[in-house]
Amino acid sequence: MSIPRSCHRRLRRAVLGVLATLATVAALVVGAAAPPAAAAGSLPCDVYGAAGTPCVAAHSLVRALYASYHGPLYQVRRASDGATADVGPLTAGGYANAAAQDSFCTGTTCVITEIYDQSPRHNDLTVEGAGGAGAADVAAPADALPVTVGGHQVYGLEISAGMGYRDDSTSGVAVNGQAEGMYMVTSGTHVNNRCCFDYGNAETNNTDTGNGHMDAINFGTECWFSPCHGQGPWVQADLENGLFQSDAGYSRNTSNTGTGPLPFVTALLKNNGQNHFALKWGNAQSGALTTTYSGGEPTASGYSPMHQEGAIVLGTGGDNSNGSVGSFFEGVMTSGIPTDAADDAVQANIVSAGYGGPTGSTGTLTPGSEISLRATTACCTADYVRHQNDAAVISAITSGSSALDKSDATWIVRRALASAAAASCVSLESRNYPGDFLRHFDYRLRRAPMDGTAQFRSDATFCPTTGRSGSGTTSFASYNYPARYLRHYDYGLYIASDGGSNAFDSATSWADDVSWRITSPWSP
């Protein structure tokens, strides 16, 4: 007799629960006489637990969030046969074993079907069903957001419109005005102004049940209550029927102009459920947290006290409003409001995790290597491939160029996104826009976020060959237009043939224009 999938899941939860309980008991015995401060090796949920506000949800694709955790982080399903596999950390308390995912998904594509809760509550997130404002979601592609964390190649979760995850039957999550805190590590480079890229507490029936029935972090450029200052993206509180930057809804803080396009952002919300909530954010690569609001609940009716229902949502609004985009690397929810000291310690740990650090390899076409591409045509030997306002161009980069220009001209070599491509083919990810790749569209090259479609995968795959001009150069043939090569023309970038009806197909200097020098990256 076959065992239903739901029973497998309950059994796995039970086994993990026993292990987690044993680990907790052991930790309590060993540390019985220790002061209530986190150890040097503590991870975010250790920090919050030591401060008296334990995690009731801990989700991450990139690393463990407890020093002792060695269970699965997330599950992937491959397209070729529908088989699934769990991806866990390399060691207890360590970084994700992304190589296991790569091996399992070789020759096909995979999607992320489940994000496991590392806390003893086992509030796992699965692909979200239909709601009051959106049809059932689809799973996110597993390889859309490759990043380096702590020197390890791992994957984040990249949400496009129509994707989302949820758990409507949770344990321990705040309800009916109970206090809670939460944070997530996200990205300021992959955002929009659609509702709603959220992580946190939501309704249990996937519909809008009224003011105060949500308590979730929102991150994006949607300004629900005017005025919002600057261009965003902002860390806001989705408390249902509004994205709040203060008790009035709109921002009372003129200095809160948003995070800007930081590649990695810590976004934090805490709410006592009665009369106070606070919003904070920080650069997940350096520095401390900034508080943008700390004060009363919204003055409109229904928010004081709150009426949370205890579901957990990721990537959509509480009613499955799913037009947003966003990036997710890790996040937790706590029972009770964490202290500011605990928040600061968690931020310090996030910074120490090493988000977006160097890959450890440079100057080659080996996946994981960071490179810059220099033009070889006589006119332009000081020019490099870079992105600028989404477009791909060539421009002069020197040692005196700004840090932004150098980052824009740095690319990370990734395994070809087109699963059927030859092993020698590659895709090129932006160094400072995680999850954005060099792709062609209407023959023009641009930087764009990976959306998981077969078209994007083909458009963002290039196959290196010996340079058409020789002399140790490299040319890059388009995977889906193999007679066209990556070419600069009038400082723009195209996939171009040697002669044709388009101006950028001109045969003049074509061999030189499609030949590139692979160099060490401008940005480490």
From TrEMBL:
PROSITE patterns per the UniProt record, alphabetical: TAT
UniProt keywords (A-Z) are: Disulfide bond, Glycoprotein, Glycosidase, Hydrolase, Signal
An example Pfam family from this entry, by short name, is AbfB
Per the UniProt entry, the disulfide pairs are 45-55, 105-110, 195-196, 425-463
Domain Alpha-L-arabinofuranosidase B catalytic residue range list: 44-355
Entry's Gene Ontology molecular function annotations: alpha-L-arabinofuranosidase activity
UniProt entry tagged with the keyword Cell membrane: no
Could you tell me which CDD domains the record lists for this protein?
beta-trefoil_ABD_ABFB
Identify the catalytic residues: 240 (nucleophile), 319 (proton donor)
Q: Where is the Alpha-L-arabinofuranosidase B arabinose-binding domain?
A: 373-518
GO BP, sorted A to Z: arabinan metabolic process; L-arabinose metabolic process; pectin catabolic process
Q: Does the keyword Nucleus apply?
A: no
Q: Where is the signal peptide?
A: 1-39
Family named by the database record:
Belongs to the glycosyl hydrolase 54 family.
* Full protein name: Alpha-N-arabinofuranosidase
Q: Which organism is it from?
A: Streptomyces naganishii JCM 4654
Gene giving rise to this polypeptide:
abfA
